[in-house]
């Protein structure tokens, strides 16, 4: 059975991942006129699901949120 705090943990993971995405957007905005700066993108990925058993005996899965997989730069190799 899943924890009673699972919903809070799900929300915490979502807020943390989106905070990193907002920070990346802020960096892109503040460096828009910087020569040589290339835009960055935050890549999010889902976390492993959790197996649960429902009260009527059916098996199921419940999502557990997202995490930041990586932050990548958008570069054009032809121009470089």
Describe it for me?
This protein has 80 residues and is an alpha+beta fold. The chain has one helix spanning 6-30, and strands spanning 40-46, 50-53, 59-62, 66-73. The strands form two sheets. A two-stranded antiparallel sheet has the order 1-4. A two-stranded antiparallel sheet has the order 2-3. Strand 2 and strand 3 (59-62) form a beta hairpin. The longest helix has 25 residues, at 6-30. The model has no long low-confidence stretch (mean pLDDT 89).
Quick description:
The protein is of the alpha+beta class. Helix content is 31%, strand content 29%. Strand 2 and strand 3 (59-62) form a beta hairpin.
Key terms:
two-stranded antiparallel ribbon, 1 helix, single chain, alpha+beta, elongated, 80 residues
Question: What is the secondary structure topology, with strand pairs?
Answer:
Blueprint: H1 6-30, E1 40-46, E2 50-53, E3 59-62, E4 66-73
Antiparallel strand pairs: 1-4, 2-3
Give the termini separation.
53 Å
Q: Strand order, main sheet: write it out.
A: 1-4
Overall, the morphology is elongated
Round the Cα radius of gyration to an integer and report it: 19 Å
Mean pLDDT: 89
- Point out poorly predicted stretches: none
- How much beta, percentage-wise? 25-35%
Alpha-beta content class: alpha+beta
Largest beta-sheet details: 2 strands, antiparallel
Helices and strands, in N-to-C order?
Answer: HEEEE
Q: What's the total number of strands? A: 4
Helix share bin: 25-40%
Specify the number of helices: 1
